[in-house]
Automatic annotation (TrEMBL):
EC main group: transferase
SUPFAM superfamilies membership: Protein kinase-like (PK-like)
Listed name of the protein: non-specific serine/threonine protein kinase
InterPro entries the record matches: Kinase-like_dom_sf, Prot_kinase_dom, Protein_kinase_ATP_BS, Ser/Thr_kinase_AS
Residues binding ATP, per UniProt: 42
Organism: Pseudonocardia xinjiangensis
Amino acid sequence: MISDVPEPGIPGLARPEVVGQGGYGTVYTAEEPEFGRRVAVKVLHERLDGDGVRRAFVRECQAMGALSGHPHIVTVHRSGTTARGEPYIVMDLMSAGSLADRIRRDGPLPWAEVLDVAVTVAGALETAHRAGILHLDLKPANVLVSRYGEPKLGDFGISRLPGVTETTAVGRIRASAAYASPERLLEGHATPAADLYGLGATMFALLTGRPAFVTDTEELFATVARIARDPVPDLRPAGVPDAVCRVVERLMAKAPGDRFASAAEAAEALQGAQRATGQPVTRAVVDGPAAGGPGTTATVYVPRLPPPAVPAPQFAPPPTRVPPRRGRRPLVVATVAAVLVAALATIAFLQLVDRPRSVSAAPSEPAAATGTSGAALPREHLADVAPGVAHPALEEARTVIDGYVAGINENRYADAFALLHPDSDIARSGLEVWAKGQATTVIHNPVLTAVRDDDADGLEVDVAFTSTQSAELGPGGQTCTNWQLTYRLAGPAPGLLIRGARTIAPPQAC
């Protein structure tokens, strides 16, 4: 029990005891004398000020209540506000704790048990998705265990309730970034595919005892950079069967389109892994009409499908393409994106030093550019052009790229930053944030392999090159990497500016 926390003052509850505190609220157990049972109560820190916020809270509670009755989703009983105006939710007490408690106490779970849990959670997710509800905070701490030993998914909708998603003054996230998908962290995209990533990330943590991309000492921006950039660590050396590893890797694919099409399809693949490894097949309980299906509900056993073909893990730097302009994003998304830019900008926009652009003041002598290798890049090394490459704007595009990377390699960050399109994500993060990620990179031997018009009055420039950098900024800890990227150059007139980049092929170690 945690002391010095005021009692919640909720009608109908007696003898509350604090059992946990998090970034968004306090968790109690309490007696409910009317029903002769103990329940769990979550009291959120934030008051519900304003009719709109109160309506949002009611909608989310109703959404969570609609899922009650599923055998693998924690039942929500009621909600309201305390005497102090704090919102609360009363739900079933999961007396056996969470799977996060289990791995803290006992270490990694056996892979066969992880498969069993994952099938049940996939069924719960599919039921929620068919009801139009996302979880958005799937992690071991939210997979709870009843007194009968049954896993149940909890905290549906909690991450979307008013006041839950927050950041501190230094930009540290109170939400569960370690289990969030790259697109959720980078762009705020909330889709069923983000929940599938969370399922894979949860499986990885249950199999190893820790999240895939978290170390004990690194800052948040480094963790987010690894999530967006690094391949899923191979679980096979730890004795996890290949059939299980392939499902985890597909669930945690960087691109949402490379994951399973639905939680039901993921359940099928997990059941296929059970069959392939000689394990009993777990039932996936799915309730609700399938998308595009008839408006009836049924509890179904998800049948086996052949194991899906799993694409090679994608560990390229995240695209810096500007997403469609929407309304104001949640504060947590904007903060994470800004912090991530500092870690990834070196990887996202890279070319070799050459002559400066007109906005950059060229030094009279070659400036030493030091990186991980400690070698200086001479100014006479211009970006080469592959045979057969031709375009009316080839020289202008080459000058922009050369000037940008010259600024990075020579630590003239203000000059390089001036070549970023003002609407790009990196430019919006600000010079100071962006420059922090540039200190260790040196770019070698770039070759422009194609220049073409894009669909919106700009150019696309394909470039192959080698980079050296500190292990913290290299994919998979690499200090030397071969890249193939496409850069998008766009106006405003009179010149072109760098608006984004994407990978052509996964980066390879030198």
